[in-house]
Amino acid sequence: MTDPILKFKNQVAIVTGSSSGIGKACAVHLASLGAKVVVNYSSNEEEGKKTLDEILAAGGEAILVQADVSHEEEVKALFNQTISHFGRLDILVSNAGLQKDAPFLEMTLQQWQKVIDVNLTGQFLCCREAARQFVLQEENVEEPQHSELAVGKIILMSSVHDVIPWAGHVNYAASKGGIMMFMKSISQELAPHKIRVNSVSPGAIKTPINKEVWSDPEKYKDLLQLIPYKRIGTPQDVAKAVAWLASDDSDYVNGETLYIDGGMTLYPEFADNG
Ligand code: NAD
Asked: pLDDT tier at 218 (50, 70, 90 boundaries)?
């Protein structure tokens, strides 16, 4: 029987964009449950190293790899380094993402393209490499285990803005809306390979990406109006849901989006209106 505490023992996980925020929490949490973790950063090596050090200090196993998820060769190198170091891959948390906000009338092609490149094309590149590796591993198994359980798990980081329109952030909302159909389509295609693909869609989570909102008391008060549960989420709220989706406990869950949003998608404006 698997130790319930170390449910990811002998499993290898890549968490993209784990130098900060939600990705960092996912990397630390998966490592605390026994996974060998590849911590990925794009440009901030110092922050990436902090995630690595936190995992190692807690007795976990991890390596640090630089890669910009929107560059094909760097993504390939990230997966190659993972396999050459740990020998296999079991979990991809495709988390890296960013915002380049602007009113639509003023949005530049560069702002549009950067967000699509990282948030959507980055997902394509990472998920494709992960799926190729999962299939390869299955083909090379000498004695198949004939297990009914998934041989590879992919969790994509989406957002409530895959369903909630967001004026002033159309590049971001379009990228997250795109993740929804991308995730469902590859889930349908990869399920026969026993690869599970799901998304998590956080609401407002306290990280550097939205510091401008939660660090301003007025904006924070306005934000709470949008959250029936009346608190901002933590990166750990998301990490625990990601760990569940990466675990065998959710083995029959495939092609789903799990909203981790304190009820933000419940249209709270309608609670006493409409
Ligand atoms: P964050 O800014 O703290 O973290 C983003 C991470 O992505 C960083 O580690 C950054 O280095 C990395 N990254 C950015 N561009 C990259 C690239 N080209 N290649 C590799 N890594 C890159 O913000 P966060 O809130 O932790 O965001 C993580 C994910 O969660 C994003 O996909 C974001 O859209 C999503 N999300 C966040 C919230 C929220 O409220 N914080 C809500 C919904 C969805």
From this structure: very high
Let me know if residue 103 belongs to a domain: yes
**Which residue from 102, 210, 124 is spatially nearest to 160, judged by alpha carbons?**
210
Mutation to probe ligand 1, out of 44, 49, 98 (largest number of atoms < 8 A from CB): 98
Smallest CA separation from ligand 1 atom 19, residue: 68
Structural domain of 28: 12-270
Q: What is the pTM of this model?
A: 0.97
Residues marked active site are found at: 172
Count other C-beta atoms under 10 Å from residue 263's C-beta: 15
CA–centroid distance, residue 146 to ligand 1 (Å): 37
- 225-245 burial, b at 16+ Cβ within 10 Å, e below that, comes to ebbeeeebbebebbbebbbbb
Q: Which of 41, 15, 6 is nearest to 153 (CA)?
A: 15
**Nearest CA residue ID for atom 39, ligand 1:** 205
CATH of the domain at 204: 3.40.50.720
Does 83 fall in a domain? yes
7 inside domain: no
Whether residue 253 lies inside any domain: the answer is yes
Query: Residues, the chain, total?
Result: 274
Please report which confidence band the pLDDT of residue 144 belongs to, taking 50, 70 and 90 as the band edges.
low
Q: Is 97 in the pocket of ligand 1 (CB under 6 A)?
A: yes
Domain count, the chain: 1
Query: What average pLDDT does the chain have?
Result: 96
The single residue listed with the structure tokens 């369903």 is 163
